[in-house]
Specification:
The chain is mostly beta strands. It is 2% helix and 36% strand. The strands form 4 sheets. A 5-stranded mixed sheet has the order 3-9-8-5-6, with no helix packed on it. A 4-stranded antiparallel sheet has the order 1-2-4-7, with no helix packed on it. A 4-stranded mixed sheet has the order 10-11-12-13, with no helix packed on it.
């Protein structure tokens, strides 16, 4: 996206001659929420004072920083979209005279776009990988990096939280229903026993005690 660019103006007022104003960066891309410092440099303007105007993505213009000797302004990209910055400069004595027609102007464009994709790998991200706004997941360490900015990937954030404390014991469950009756035991099973009537049983019968005759 083309910036408004460098403007050089020759006028008959206080800013007469080959006075120039440059704004840097003229055209840059960031992610929403990232701040951009816009710096203005005036040449051949005695005791320059600068004014910064910002057009937000919704098209509204704001006097972000009125005339002062501060030559920079921090633009906070609070929402995604294109921001336009216009900078004006006048000699220190002129703002009080409201000699706005003598001001030099130059501008810049800041394009703030949200993250575009999630990259993955088994190591930390390397320099030159990805585009502005990308995120990166190191699958070996579960570290999340990004979003990628002009300054780089930054430090990763672990996705593994601290070990939690043991939970409380659960409730005692209800007794289960009685199972079905199993098949009868085979009388020939050596584990089966016979009662006094000759009937097989899986329960051992106590022997009938015998009484000894008196002597």
């Amino acid at each position: 996206m083309a910036a408004v660019g460098l403007v050089a103006v020759s006028a008959s007022g206080a800013a007469a001659g080959l006075s120039t104003l440059a704004v840097r960066p003229a055209d840059t891309s960031v992610i929403p929420g990232e701040a951009v410092v816009i710096t203005a440099t005036a040449n051949n303007v005695p005791s320059p004072e600068y004014q910064f105007w910002v057009e937000s993505p919704d098209g509204a213009w704001t006097d972000a920083q009125n005339y002062s000797n501060r030559d920079s302004f921090a633009l906070n990209t609070t929402a995604p979209g294109v921001y336009r910055v216009m900078v004006y400069v006048l000699p220190a004595a002129e703002p009080a005279k409201q000699a706005w027609s003598d001001a030099l102007g130059s501008g810049a464009v800041v394009d703030a776009q949200p993250p575009t994709q999630l990259l993955t790998g088994s190591t930390a991200p390397t320099v030159g990988l990805g585009s502005l706004g990308d995120m990166y997941l190191d699958t070996a360490t579960e570290q999340l990096y990004g979003p990628l900015t002009q300054a780089g990937w930054g430090s990763g954030v672990s996705l593994i939280g601290p070990r939690g404390s043991p939970g409380q014991p659960g409730f005692t469950g209800r007794p289960g229903s009685r199972g079905p009756q199993g098949p009868p035991r085979d009388p020939k099973d050596p584990r089966a026993f016979r009662d006094s009537q000759g009937r097989s049983s899986t329960r051992r019968q106590s022997p009938t005690p015998t009484r000894c005759p008196p002597e």
